Amino acid sequence: MSLSEVGKRLIQETINSDLINNLGNIVHKLIPMLESRQESTILPYLAGNEVEDKYLADLQKLPAEFEKLVEENDIRSAIKLVLNISKEYSSVIEVRKPWELYKNNKTQELANVLFAGTCAIRTVFVLLEPILTTKSKEVYEQMNFTPEQTQLKNINNFEQLLNHKINKSKKLFQKLDVTDPNVNLKPLEQQETKTKEVKDKKAKESSKQSPKEPTKEQAKEPTK
């Protein structure tokens, strides 16, 4: 079974509106700032600011929440949950204004903002790698992530990114086209098939358990 055209369009719209327009913009803003402000280096994080502390705490909860939705066969909600992290980081940028932090020589606060963004990029693309296989690998190369750093079991190990050096920035994102053979929709197709099978099975079991209404002839028969 393949994804319906409606399903494909939904995925395309979701990816283009959330991933490309939000996280894509963050990647394109974050990497140049790391290059020009921190010599392409992820500097150590120092807890103490409520905005970044809360964001990183929410980020650490994300893998478990994502896995729960996947186990419940709610793939689209799982994807939206992951993509929402980009919107939250946009809020961090708006509140913290890293360009002003740099201008005012608040180097540690700037380092915190950029560190949080780096963690977000890794988490999002590791979780979405089964769908955005090619794009995730391009992001890993851009961020110079090692295979160990992109293992699912390690994405909450933020300390792995301390003093990490990224590669030179380049344009990574184009609008997603679900007809592109490089876009891997197979995991979603398999999941949609599984979801349909589960629903069909439940419906069948429910119909067996429901008492059948008596026919007109049976209803007329006197009770013995």
From TrEMBL:
GO biological process: methionyl-tRNA aminoacylation
Annotated keywords: Aminoacyl-tRNA synthetase, ATP-binding, Ligase, Nucleotide-binding
Residue ranges occupied by any Methionyl-tRNA synthetase anticodon-binding domain in the UniProt entry: 50-177
Compositional bias ranges of the Basic and acidic residues kind: 189-224
A single GO molecular function term of this UniProt record: methionine-tRNA ligase activity
Region Disordered, residue ranges: 183-224
Matches recorded under InterPro entries: Anticodon_Met (IPR041872), Met-tRNA_ligase_1 (IPR023458), tRNAsynth_Ia_anticodon-bd (IPR009080)
Pfam families tied to this protein: Anticodon_3
CDD domains from the UniProt entry: Anticodon_Ia_Met
One cellular component (GO) term of this entry: cytosol
Family: Belongs to the class-I aminoacyl-tRNA synthetase family. MetG type 1 subfamily.
Record-given protein name: Methionyl-tRNA synthetase
